[in-house]
Amino acid sequence: MEILIALAIGVLGGSGVWLLLRPRTFQVIVGLSLLSYAVNLFIFSMGKMRTGVAPILQKGEAGSLIFYDDPLPQALVLTAIVIGFATTALFLVVMLASRGLTGTDHVDGRERDQ
Amino acid sequence: MSGLMDHLAILPIVLPLLAGALMIMLGDQRRSLNGAIGLVSMAAMLVMAVLLLRQADAVGGSGLPAAVYRLGDWPASFGIVLVVDRLTALMLLLAAILGLAALTFSLARWHRIGAHFQPLVQFQLMGLNGAFLTGDLFNLFVFFEVMLAASYGLALHGSGAARVRAGLHYIAINLAASLLFLIAASLIYGVSGTLNMADLAARIPSLTGPDRMLLEVGAAILGIVFLVKAGMWPLGFWLPGTYAAASPPAAALLSILSKVGIYAVLRLWLLLFSGEAGESAGFGGTWLLFGGILTIGFGTFAVLATQDMSRLAGASVLVSSGTLLAAIGTGQVGVTSGALMYMVSSVLAIAAFFLVIDLAERGREVGADVLAVSLEAFGEGDDEEPTEGEEIGIAIPATMAILGISFMACALLLAGLPPFSGFLAKFAILSPLLGSSDAGRAVPTGTWVLVAALIISGLATLVAMTRTGINTFWGSLDDKHLRVRVIELAPVALLLSLCIGLTVLAGPAMRYMESTAQALHQPGGYVRGVLSPTNGGNGS
User: Fold this and answer.
1) Does residue B33 sit within a domain?
2) In A61, A100, B94, B317, which residue has its Cα 20 to 30 A from B288's Cα atom?
3) Residue B436 domain-assigned?
4) What is the pLDDT of residue B537?
5) What is the residue range of B449's domain?
C-alpha cells in the first residue's frame, strides 16, 4: 500500500507542479487543485499507513496507537480540504475577473509577443 | 481580576470577528454606521493590546509567557493554546495601530470604491492577531489562511486591470505557499507527534537519526513558506507589484503582512533551534543571514530603479524585510533587540509612506512620474479612481508644507538617518554586530558584508527618496488641485508621531526590546510556561 500511496502522491504532485508553471490561468488552477490532492494524501499518510483500525476509542480500552489509528492527521486533512476549497474558489473568481478585464487567459494579463 | 480580563488573550481574535460579521449583516450600504463600528472595534483592540503589553512586561526576566489561554481548557499538548508574551504583545499593538490608521484613512473615500472594505479590514486584523497569538503550528496555518483570504480581498479592493493582474500572482504564490505549509506541518507532526510549538521545542533535542533529518526538512519547508511571506530574495518578486497596485490604505495594512513572515521566523526559529535544541541548534541561520543580505541588495537596486512612488514604497518593504532577516540570522541577542526596534520603526514609517504617497499623487497629473516606466504598467488609467469629479475635501492651508514634512520624515526614517527612530534602530543593529569583536576575535566576513549592505541600502533609499521628493514637491505639483481632508492627514500624523515618540522614549522602548530578545533567545521559560499543567489557562 505504501508504494501505491507514494506513487499517487508523486504523480499528482508532479503533474500539479508542471501545470502550475504553465502560462494559462486554467492550467494554473488545475495544477493547484492537483497539488492540493497530493498534499492531502501526504498529510493522511503522516498518520502511518494502517488498514482496518478505527480512529475512535472504544469504551473501557486503553488508548494506544497499537490498536487505534491516529485521528489527528484526519482532522488536519479535513481542515485542509475546506480551506483549500475556499481559496481555490476565490482564485477562480479572480481568474475570471482577470479574463474579463484583460481579454486573455495568460497569467500576466497579456500575450508574450504583444 | 474580572471575568473579562481572564479572557483578554482571546478577545483580539473574537472582537474583529464579531465586528466584521455584524458589518456584513448590516449590509454594505450603511457606510457611516459600519465605519463607526470599525473605529470602535479598532480602538478596543488598541486598548487590549496595550493591556496585554503591560501584562507581558510585568512578568520580569524569567522569560515565562504572561498568559497561556487554553481553548476548552485542554492541556497544552492536546488542545490549542494562545500564548501572550512580549513579542506577541508588541506585534498585537503594532497591528492595532496600523489597523486604526488605515481604517481612518480609508473613511475619507477609499472604502467607497469597492464592496466590503470595512469587514475585510476586521477579518484581516483577526487573522493577524490570531497568527501572533497562537501557540500551535496548525492553528498558525489556519490564521495565516484567514489573514491571507482577507488580504486577497484588500489587495483587489477597487478592482481594475492592474489590481486583478497583481492579485492573481499574489493569490497563486500564496496558495502554493499554503500547500508547502501543510506539507511542513504534517511532516513535523509525523516525526515529532506534536503540533504545539512549545512541546515541539521540548521534543527536538531527543530526536535522532532519520527523524532529526526529516524534522529539519520540515522546518526548512516551513521556513520557505515564511520567507515567501516576508519577501526574501528570490521568493519576493511578487511583493513590490502587489503592494504598488493595492489601494493605499490596504497597502498600509499589507505592510505588516510581510512582517508576519518575519514574526513567524523569529518565533519558530528561535524557539526550535535555539542553543537548547541539541544537535540542531542554529539550523538554517546562515541561510537567513545571506538570504537577508541578498534581499537588501535586491531591494536597494529596486529602490534606485523605480520611478513610481508606490513601487518605491514596495521596494522599501523588501529592504526592511532583508534587514530584519539578516539581523535575525546573526543569532545574537543584541542584534535581535535592535531588529525588533527596526521592525516597529520601519512598519510605521512604510505605512505612513503609503498614505503620504496617495495624498501627494492626488495633486499630480496621472502618469507625471512615469518617465521610464511604460504607461501600460500604470494600469488603464482612470478606471480605479474613486468617484469622478467629486469634491474630495476642503483645502487645508499649508497642505503642501505638511505633506512635504511628512514625506521628509518618512525618508529619514526609512533611510535610517538621525534624528528619528530609524537611525536609533539601525544603530542598535550595527553596534552589537561590531561590538562583538572587542572580545578578541575578528569580525567575520559575513558581518562586514551585512554592515556594508545596511549602510549602502540606507544611502540608496536616501538618494531615491530625495529624487522623488524633488520631482514631487518642488516639481509639477499644483497646489490648487491638492485637497486633503483632516481624517486623511490624521493617520499620517499619528504614525509619524509614534515614530517620534519611539525616538524620545528610546530608553524604555529599547529595554523592552532587549528583554524580548533575551526571552526569545532562551526559550526555556516559554516552553515551561506553556507546558506547565498548573498554568490554569486564564490571565497571569
Assistant:
1) no
2) B94
3) yes
4) 43
5) 284-366+395-522
